[in-house]
Every structure is written in C-alpha cells, then in structure tokens.
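pls design
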C-alpha cells in the first residue's frame, strides 16, 4: 500500500513538471509580448500560499497536479457576454487588449516549451552519458507459446526462434527495445529484416499487422533472454532458494529450458509443491529444489511478483555506459530523438483511425499518473543514475505528447485557440464574444467526453487487470 502511494506521488510529481514546463512557456511568451500575467499557479484549486511581485500572484494551490497561467483581462470575455457586446474590450497589457498575433504567439509557446524541454533532456543525456541496460534483438516466435493458433507476420515471413535481427530496412539495431519501437507504428508496411541464423545472414521481408486491442503494430515475437542468473542480493528470494550469480538453468523436471519464456511457462504450469531445476555454473552441474509459496507459487523465487514488469531483472542482461558526446553532436542527437518521438506520436495518432481499439489506446489521468510513477520507481530501483535517466526520458516522451495534443485544432486546447485568433487576424475584425463562447463550449464538451471516457477506461482496467 505504501509503495503504491509512493508510486502515485512520483507520478504526480513527474506530470506536474511537464505541465509546469508548458505553462512556463505561456508565461514567458506573455511577458515578452507585453501581456500582464495575473496568476501563475503551481497546482489547482484554492490558494494555499504564495507571494506577489508587481502585478503577478505566484502561488501554490491545493491540488498538486500541474498548474496554470492566467492573464490580465481574461474576465473581459465574460463581461462582454453579459453586456451583449460585439467585441471583447481590452486595455493595453491585457490579453484581449493585445493583437491577435501576440495571442497566437502566447498560444504556441506552451507546446514549443514542451518540445524544447524534450530536446534539452535528450541533449543532456547524450552530453553526460548514461548507464544503460538492454537485451539483444534475439527473438522467440510468439506462435510457439501462445494458446491461440493464429498465423502471425513472423511466421509468414519465415522467422525462427533463435534468430537475431541485425537490421531493419538496412538500419542496424543492437537491442530488442529498438526493434519494438521501430515496428509499432508501421502497420501494413513491408519492411526488410536482416537476420542472423546460426552462421548465415539472410534477408526477410515482413509486414507488421495492427493489434486492434493495443493500438500498435506487431510481428509476433518475444525477446529471447538466456536463463542465466545475474546479480542477486544475498537475502533475495533467488539467493535463499540456492541460486548463485552465473547459474544457467538447464532444465526443469527434465524438460529443457532454452530461455526465460520457457521457464516462466513451466513455472506457471507445474502442479507439484516442489520443482527440481538442473543448473550449471563453471562446468559443474547441481540440482536446486524450488518450493511453492501459497501467494505466488514458484514465480516469487525468480522475479518480483509484485512488479511483473521487472520479471527478468534477476536474469543476466547487457549493460554499459554510453559514449559522452560533445556539445554539438549531443545537441544534434537531442534534435534527432525529439523529432523521432514527434513522428512516432503523429503515427500513433493516425493509427487511432486505422481500426485500433480507441478504448485501449487512449490513456486517462489515473493510468498516466500510475504509469509515470511506475517508470520512475523502477528506474530508481536500479540505482540513482538509471532512476534519473528513466524519469527524464519518460517525462520527455509525455512532454512531446502534451505538445502534440495541445496543438490539435480542438476548441479550449492551444491549437483551437490559435485557430480562433488566426481567424480574427485573417478576417481583420474583432473577435465576436458569442461566437467565441459557442466555439469554446463545443471544445469543453469534446474534452470532457474524452476525459470521462479515458477515466472510465482507466478504472475498468484497474478493476479487472490490477
């Protein structure tokens, strides 16, 4: 329970940083455009404490999620509606007293700040260097371990379990996570894979298919991880069971264990209270008897059942320190990776209209907070360095998503407001308050419908999938 509360707190903190970056963009653009900022708040709701400098109230509010920026003269819009005016009055220095161009700049500045935040994060990561953990792009056919008898793209292409994918469309890859990221937004596209099979290099064409439930493209493979015990603590469940670092699990109940997927399947299917494992270390073989626990069966002895995403943490994976790049190469990498994330976000958005299950593709506030906290917690579980790396990488991804979302031409969002002010500029006449009200009302309905739907989806998933 305490761990879950801590996870939620980390999630709120991470999301708040991203939202505050966004609002800071609006704040500084307004200052540069000569528009007065009435309130800059960390959090929402009732004011808890703060201070006033010139005409701005800097405050901390009751609900600690993000924040907001309120400009001077925004109440003029409501006054114009009440007085049935044909325009929104505004004094110099007020939001509606400024030109449409200045308001467009302020509207754009929030998403721009989020993009700059992402560039800076990736720039610093490559400038400082980082400790990374990864697995080779060696694959297992999902069809061999799935209960469904579906023929998947990997089967059609002729891939085999044990193959290592070396390149995708001629671009070299050296880790499984990169392979997944390069495939998930390319449904129905023919891709050329360079594969190493035994001592041979072969080229195979493959066409990923869309997983309607998850809203991503896939080819039907799992990651091959050798069942070799990595670094374990002296009082950890694997150590108490008798495992030592470097142990390779050869078989269980006489059945060969070539990879961790086979081990997980066997642990789940075994009905006895004891399970004999044959392990080898340094050329010497010995037997370890696993004894089932009431709560988690055999699984707790090999991975943390409370944290299924870390299930392979006990097994040996590759690690290393990335190269520290110079200032300009690191900045170039920051731009490149930010563009890659932006392009992937755009492709993911388009896939919502390609038959994907929108209910599973859209994440609401509860899952977003939970997922953010989970990533931050798991990162720090591996040490301070990985914790900082995972946290800021994930916040950078959310930051790009927030920028993209806010630029959509939906009323109430930045993109919708920019479109409204652009129409005012092009038409060369003041904004009509009644038209603006109807326009924003439609936007509120759209955003509320999406928010309610996403929240209900979160609650359903949390109820049935934990």
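designed seq:
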């Amino acid at each position: 329970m305490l761990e879950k509360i801590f996870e939620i707190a980390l999630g709120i903190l991470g999301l708040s940083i991203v939202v505050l970056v966004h609002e800071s963009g609006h704040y500084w653009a307004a200052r540069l455009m000569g528009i007065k900022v009435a309130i800059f708040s960390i959090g929402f709701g009732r004011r808890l404490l703060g201070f006033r400098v010139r005409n701005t109230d800097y405050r901390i509010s009751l609900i600690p999620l993000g924040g907001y920026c309120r400009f001077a003269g925004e109440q003029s819009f409501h006054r114009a509606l009440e007085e049935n005016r044909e325009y929104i009055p505004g004094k110099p220095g007020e939001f509606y007293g400024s030109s449409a161009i200045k308001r467009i700049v302020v509207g754009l500045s929030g998403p721009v700040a989020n993009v700059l935040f992402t560039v800076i994060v990736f720039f610093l990561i490559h400038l400082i260097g980082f400790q990374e953990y990864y697995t080779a792009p060696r694959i297992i056919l999902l069809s061999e371990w799935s209960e469904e008898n579906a023929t998947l793209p990997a089967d059609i292409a002729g891939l085999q379990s044990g193959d290592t994918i070396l390149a995708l469309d001629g671009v070299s890859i050296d880790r499984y996570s990169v392979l997944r990221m390069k495939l998930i937004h390319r449904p129905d596209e023919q891709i050329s894979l360079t594969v190493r099979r035994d001592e041979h290099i072969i080229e195979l064409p493959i066409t990923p298919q869309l997983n309607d439930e998850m809203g991503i493209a896939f080819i039907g493979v799992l990651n091959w991880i050798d069942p070799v015990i990595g670094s374990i603590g002296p009082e950890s469940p694997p150590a108490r069971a008798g495992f030592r670092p470097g142990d390779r699990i050869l078989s269980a109940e006489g059945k060969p264990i070539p990879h961790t997927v086979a081990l997980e399947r066997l642990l789940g299917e075994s009905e006895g209270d004891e399970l004999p494992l044959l392990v080898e270390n340094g050329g010497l073989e010995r037997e370890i008897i696993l004894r089932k626990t009431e709560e988690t069966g055999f699984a707790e002895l090999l991975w943390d059942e409370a944290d299924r995403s870390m299930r392979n943490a006990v097994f040996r994976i590759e690690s290393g320190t990335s190269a520290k790049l110079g200032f300009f190469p690191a900045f170039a990498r920051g731009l490149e990776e930010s563009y890659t994330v932006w392009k992937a976000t755009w492709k993911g958005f388009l896939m919502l209209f390609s038959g994907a299950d929108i209910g599973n593709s859209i994440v609401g506030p509860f899952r977003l907070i939970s997922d953010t906290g989970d990533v931050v917690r798991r990162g720090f579980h591996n040490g301070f360095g990985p914790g900082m790396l995972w946290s800021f990488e994930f916040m950078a991804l959310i930051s790009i998503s927030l920028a993209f979302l806010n630029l959509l031409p939906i009323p109430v969002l930045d993109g919708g407001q920019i479109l409204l002010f652009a129409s005012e500029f092009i038409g060369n006449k003041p904004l009509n308050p009644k038209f603006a009200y109807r326009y924003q009302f439609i936007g509120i309905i759209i955003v509320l419908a999406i928010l309610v739907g996403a929240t209900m989806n979160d609650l359903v998933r949390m109820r049935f999938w934990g």
